[in-house]
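Sequence dictates fold. Next comes a concrete instance:
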Amino acid sequence: MEEEDIWTSLFFSGICPNILETNEPPGNQFRPFGPEDGAEDDNWNLGRKVDISREPDPNTIQVFWLRIKGRSKYIAKVVSDDDNYLYECSKLIMYQFPGYSKEDAKVQLCRVSIRPTPERIDDAIYNFDRFYREARAYSHIDLLCSVRERIYFPQFHGVITNMSRSRFSSGYCHERAVVLEAIKPALSSRRVLVEHVEDVDSLSMSFFAILQTLSLKFFTTPEIISLSPFEQDWYYSLLRDRLRRLNTLHRIGITHGDIHDHHFRLPNDIYDTVLYDFSESYTFSKKQPFRVNHGRPRPLSVISEGERDRILHHIRDRAISRDLRSYLIRDADSKHTSSVDNTVCVDNALWQYPDKEIKLLELIMLRVSFRPDGQLSLIPHLSIGH
């Protein structure tokens, strides 16, 4: 058996998926950002950095607004060792990546105890360069995901590989960037997912049963959690949606490699939007890689279980902290009411049982000038759903 067949069999545990029948473009050739995105060479430029609070660093991924004819439309990603966040903007954002040289590849090979021959150095660049990782993952998603599944991730608008210094007004000049849809902490960026998907319908246990199973599996002490019926449904829905995004990646041969709670939602936002940041990802190719997600090459099933467990832990921790309840209490803050009144009102709303017949997962809290009993309303308008 050839080396490529051995790796394919190991990664997919002997099961031949349909994605192996797809004709993919060569490994380092990606869709360029250009006219089909409304951008010509002379009518776009970089705006300011997305996170101006971060100190510039030549080795980090920089994130900029991308403006077309003076309008903030995209976001561009330019590579970094830090976590990457998609902050508010109009339509697009650019992630700019620092270069990855042959010397960088040699150092990386030495770290994993592999002799840096010329051929291995070229392979290492393909394997370790974060720009290639990110672009390869988004290209793979565009190629193999259905329209319904693509909304689980930011929309990919191509790459730039020859960024000129004149484009930059701040930060470090990097030639390469990945251009993505900009995700906002707003309703317009949230995705509505289909109700039934086979790969997550296997979660037949109740949410509390899942928490108990986790405690037994990882030998942790089960915390006493008092969750309202609405909170149980909300966290359970959140869990299913996250697993749905992750399972879609695994089905097409991508492992994320950096599963964190903040890679499903924007900073300080309670709601999920998309799963993003693929700079540590692995996208399957028939040539065996040196490393997969900071570890030795291993089966997808093993990696998948670990990434799913991380999601389960994130949701478990959030349920224990009852961050949804805390968010609603903060959001209900009003100068006309005390924090105690807000807490009581939110708790009363949360402990109303959902309508089991029509199965609506919805909580709507409205403010009116006066209640029927003549008292002032306790809280301002709240509307949540998942």
Q: What stands out?
A: The chain has one domain: 3-321. The longest helix spans residues 229-251.
